[in-house]
Amino acid sequence: MHVVWFGGGLGNQMFQYGLYCFLKKNNKEVKADCTQYSTTPMHNGFELERLFNLDIAHANLDVISKLTGGNRLSPRKVIWKIFRKRNVYFEEKAPFSFDPDVLKGNNRYLKGYWQNTNYLEPCEEELRDVFTFPAFSSDNNKRLAHEIAKVESVSVHFRRGDFLKSSNLGLFGGICSDQYYLRAIQTMENTFVEPVFYVFCDDPQWAKDTFTDARFTVIDWNIGSRSYRDMQLMSLCKHNIIANSTFSWWAAWLNRNPNRTVVAPERMVNRDLDFSGIFPNDWIRLRG
């Protein structure tokens, strides 16, 4: 049995579910460890089963304990580290890379984020089907969905919030700069006649203060546990400008417009890594 650890917000969970499906596609028995959400507050908690019609098998605590050694203070943990860890515990080696070693063995615990399209491609149609959002219930979202279907709609996503914390600035800051967004918007304006821009941001007041031009519409009503509706609306836009965020990455990936244009940043984090595996080949990558 392979047990996949789940952690982080909705975008991260969707990538981890991608690995879950990849393993099943390769005839592995797979279960999920979602216990992180019962001990550590994370964004809006474990959202996958709340939003999508998924059939996720959950590992029980006994199985998780055997594969992870249990409580870090127990004698069992020491024995596990010495004799079992290297055989059963597999942590992602390089972010954004594909590692075929995830398929090795029969009893393993897999911890990581698995943000690489090679995990998704074998299950692409299945993922697109299961990641179908609930029908809109609010009049605002119904109206906007109707509107963006009629125009040359372009979603523009800004991730502020936790990215602006001093502890995160070094890793995430400066990638999607003002220059990045200016170049991305110019790319869309040079490509399409009368594009209409829809701005999505986790700091809607900042967005409303910043984007006062009539070309831009700021979406400011999907907050808290309803924030997933922003991903849904972005995926319905004809084209997408994404941030260095898995939230808008998934919105663009789920966009079913065959003629879509997606603009993405050159990198996802400020580290010397190979990011080519997370970006589909037809996406336009711009330097910040």
Number of domains: 2
Tertiary shape: elongated
What is the N-to-C order of secondary-structure elements (H for helix, E for strand)?
Answer: EHEHHHHHEEHHHEHHEHEHEHEE
Low-confidence stretches: none
**Tally of helical segments:** 14
Give the integer mean of the pLDDT values: 93
Please tally the β strands and state the result. 10
CATH architectural grouping of the largest domain: 3-Layer(aba) Sandwich
Strand order of the largest sheet: 7-6-5-8-9-10
Classify the secondary structure makeup into a structural class: alpha/beta
Distance between the termini: 43 Å
Can you walk me through this structure?
There is one protein chain. The chain is α/β, with parallel strands linked by helices and 288 residues long. The chain has two domains: 2-129; 136-286, 3-Layer(aba) Sandwich (Rossmann fold), CATH 3.40.50. The chain has 14 helices and ten strands. It has helices spanning 10-25, 36-39, 48-51, 61-68, 75-83, 85-88, 117-120, 124-130, 139-150, 166-172, 178-191, 204-210, 228-236, 246-253; strands at 2-5, 30-33, 89-91, 108-111, 152-158, 195-201, 216-219, 239-241, 262-265, 284-286. The strands form two sheets. Strands 7-6-5-8-9-10 form a six-stranded parallel sheet, sandwiched between helices. The protein has a four-stranded parallel sheet with strand order 2-1-4-3, sandwiched between helices. 34% of the residues are buried. The model has no long low-confidence stretch (mean pLDDT 93).
